[in-house]
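TASK: fixed-backbone design
INPUT:
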């Protein structure tokens, strides 16, 4: 065999291997959060209300002190919000955004703050600190698998799964709860939500058992659902870039066509009757990139189902290896985000031509 033939064969092998193993479009599996609803249990099976020694005294400083106060009290310290947006649960989000240093979402209903979510290096989440190690948190925090509370004549027990006690720790303070969102890959605190028990029950964030009356979850009407979804997209964009910056990556730019593809995909997920069984046919991201004639060198996609809000969705993705790697991929330049109710999609690309959109 002459040298030219050998060179031809070697080149063919390289090209075949490139086609076989190079995956310019990485579409990750759907990440799902099982729907949790309160279940009525007989009195004798209901865990007794947690004793007082498991309830921490409420912090005297930091953002948690504002929960239960008026939004005017918050504004006196932090000023006006950059955005005010509707939520899935009929309260408003007041968004305070300061790039890497601080990102805060303040839940407000009828002028009263019912929760504060804080992330970023300068977030004042006393007694915790963003970036604090999980080991350090365990040293001074009692992490329980079940936490009881009484509201009026009703009793409730939040039951945490082993995964919850690792990445969504629940801590009870006087009059409020703290949800500690952990990055289990870095074993560090990535965000904290201080929240009233009433709103925590509305979120159905944990398995919840109760005796008496279960607090009703009131979802928005269809007439404002679109505004809620667009707001969630902006919040998820903020959080995605916040975590990229924290891990030394550049923030991503919005790409409208990617967002349109993502919205359609999230709606497909929501309307599929067998979404949890994985037996449905959904559009392929790679096909949509071709259909929309989007020039790219590399692309990736994340999707999530039945997460309560963008805070929960980003925490789920960041604690899943493949989804996390997609979010933190250094070569990506643009993103499109689509939300439909509790269904979320992120589409990423490394643009191969100058942006024209």
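OUTPUT:
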């Amino acid at each position: 065999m002459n040298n030219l033939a050998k060179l031809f064969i070697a080149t063919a092998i390289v090209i075949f291997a490139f086609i076989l193993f190079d995956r310019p479009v990485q579409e990750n599996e759907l990440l799902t959060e099982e729907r949790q609803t309160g279940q009525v249990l007989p009195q004798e099976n209901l865990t007794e209300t947690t004793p007082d020694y498991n309830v921490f005294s409420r912090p005297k400083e930091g953002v948690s002190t504002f929960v239960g106060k008026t939004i005017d009290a918050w504004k006196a310290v932090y000023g006006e919000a950059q955005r005010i947006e509707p939520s899935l649960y009929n309260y408003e989000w007041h968004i305070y955004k300061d790039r890497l240093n601080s990102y805060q979402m303040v839940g407000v209903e009828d002028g009263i703050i019912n929760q504060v979510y804080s992330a970023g290096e300068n977030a004042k989440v006393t007694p915790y600190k963003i970036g604090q190690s999980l080991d350090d948190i365990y040293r001074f925090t009692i992490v329980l698998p079940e936490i009881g509370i009484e509201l009026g004549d009703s009793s409730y027990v939040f039951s945490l799964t082993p995964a919850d006690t690792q990445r969504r720790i629940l801590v009870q303070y006087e009059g409020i709860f703290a949800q500690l969102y952990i990055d289990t890959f870095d074993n560090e605190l990535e965000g904290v939500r201080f929240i009233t028990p009433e709103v925590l029950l509305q979120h159905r964030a944990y398995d919840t058992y109760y005796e008496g009356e279960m607090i009703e979850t009131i979802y928005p009407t269809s007439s404002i659902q679109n505004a809620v979804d667009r707001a969630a997209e902006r919040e998820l964009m903020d959080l995605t870039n916040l975590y990229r910056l924290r891990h030394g990556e550049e923030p991503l730019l919005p790409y409208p066509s990617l967002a349109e593809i993502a919205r359609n995909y999230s709606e497909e997920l929501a309307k599929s009757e067998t979404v949890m069984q994985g037996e449905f046919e959904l559009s392929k991201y790679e096909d949509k990139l071709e259909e929309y004639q989007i020039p790219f060198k590399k692309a990736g996609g994340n999707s999530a189902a039945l997460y309560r809000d963008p805070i929960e969705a980003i925490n789920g993705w960041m604690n899943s290896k493949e989804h996390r790697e997609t979010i933190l991929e250094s070569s990506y330049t643009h993103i499109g985000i689509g939300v439909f109710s509790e269904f979320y999609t992120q589409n990423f690309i490394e643009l191969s031509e100058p942006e024209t959109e």
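COMMENT: The two ends are 52 Å apart (CA to CA).
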